[in-house]
Amino acid sequence: MPVVTVLKDDAESTKVRVEGQIYNFDNRTGFWSPWSLSDFVVGVSNVDNISPVSDYMRADVENTPVFQKRQILRFNPNIFTYSKLKFKFHIIHQIQPGENGGTSYVWNSVVKDVESQTVLLERAVKLVTIDRTTRKAVELPKWFRQKYHDPSPKMERLNDLPDSFKTIFNPPDFPSDCYQWRTTVRYSDLDFNMHTHQSVYTKFCLDAITSAALKGKLRYFNRDICFYPLESVDITFIGESFAEDELLVNILQDMCDQTIIRCLIENNRKPVTYLVLKLGLTTLSVSKL
After folding, report:
1. What is the three-class DSSP state of 223?
2. Predicted confidence band of residue 187 (pLDDT cuts 50, 70, 90)
3. Would you place residue 275 in the very low, low, confident or very high pLDDT band (cuts 50, 70, 90)?
4. Cα dihedral angle (101, 105, 108, 109), rounded to 10 degrees?
5. Whose CA is closest to 249, among 288, 281, 217, 284?
6. Count of other CB atoms within 10 angstroms of residue 2
7. What does the DSSP assignment read for 154-200?
8. pLDDT (tens digit per residue) in 34-62
9. Closest CA to 63 of 154, 138, 115, 160
10. Distance in angstroms (rounded) separating the CA atoms of residues 210 and 220
11. From CA 178, how far away is CA 168, in angstroms rounded?
C-alpha cells in the first residue's frame, strides 16, 4: 500500500506526499493506465480523509451527494513510463466553489514528481450537489461555502487547464456510418452508488478505439491504442448506466486534427457520456512484463 503523508490541509489547498509501489494501476503495457490515474488521485485522498473527500462523505450523509458533470485530464506522457517498481509523488488539491456558492464546485488536482517537481498530471472536475430524493441540483451547504471561501484573485491556480466548465459542452452529430462498438456493464464496473464508475467510461472508449484501430478504421493508429500515450481526455457526464446495461460507443476521428478522437457512449439510444481524447502519435516502448 502507498504511504500517504498529509503536508498541508486548509481552505486554500491540500498537499500530500505519496510513495510506495504501483499496484493494479497498469494496463497491457505494464505501466500506468490513463483510465486509472484519476482513480489513483481520488483514492489517495481517501486514505487520510483529507478535505475534498471528507467533505464528499459529509455531503453524502446529509443526503446531498455530489456527482461529476465534467472532467478534464491532461497527462505528461512521461507518466506512462514512470517507475514501475516505486514512485514518489506530490498530489495537490484545490477546491473552487461556484459563484455565490451555487450548486457546483471545481476540484483541481496536480500530480508532481517529488524529486524533479515535474508536473505529470493535471486534473479538473466539476461536481454538482443534488438532493438524493428529487435528483435535482441544490445549493452547496453553508458549512462548505464557509470552509472553501471564494479563492482570492491573487491565489495561484494549481493547473493550466482551460477554464471552460461554465460553457455547455454538447456532442456533435455522429454520422450513421461511424465506427461503433458494443459492451455490457459488469457489476465490477459499478461505484458505491451502484452506477457505472466514472473511470470505466474512459476504459470503454480506449477499448473501442483499440478495436477500431486494429480493424483499420482510423488513420495513423493501427495497433493496440494503449501503446499510444493519451495526452488529454475531456469527459462530459450526461446520464447514468447500470449493471447489465448494453452500451454503444460511437467513434469519430477529427478531420482537421486526426490525433483527436471523439466518443459518444449511448445507453438504449440515450447519451450517457461524451469524451474527447487527444492521442500522441509516438508509441510507447513495448513492456517486458
Report:
1. coil
2. very high
3. very high
4. 110
5. 217
6. 18
7. TSPPS------TTS-----PPPTTSEEEEEE--GGGB-TTSSB-HHH
8. 988 888 888 777 766 676 666 666 776 77
9. 138
10. 12
11. 24
Please determine, for residue 101, whether its predicted confidence score (pLDDT) is greater than 60: no
**Hunting for cell 449511448 — which residue is that?**
266
Is 247 strand, coil or helix? strand
Q: What is the DSSP letter of 130?
A: B
The answer to whether residues 56 and 42 touch, using CB atoms and an 8 Å cutoff, is no
Positive or negative, the CA dihedral 62, 186, 202, 173 is negative
Closest to 151 in 3D by CA, of 11, 1, 9, 262: 11
CB-based contact 21:219 (threshold 8 Å): no
pTM: 0.89
Laid out side by side, the sheet with 87-98 consists of 3-9, 14-20, 87-98, 101-113, 119-129, 66-75, 230-237, 270-279, 260-267, 246-253, 179-184
CA 69 from centroid of its chain's CA atoms: 11
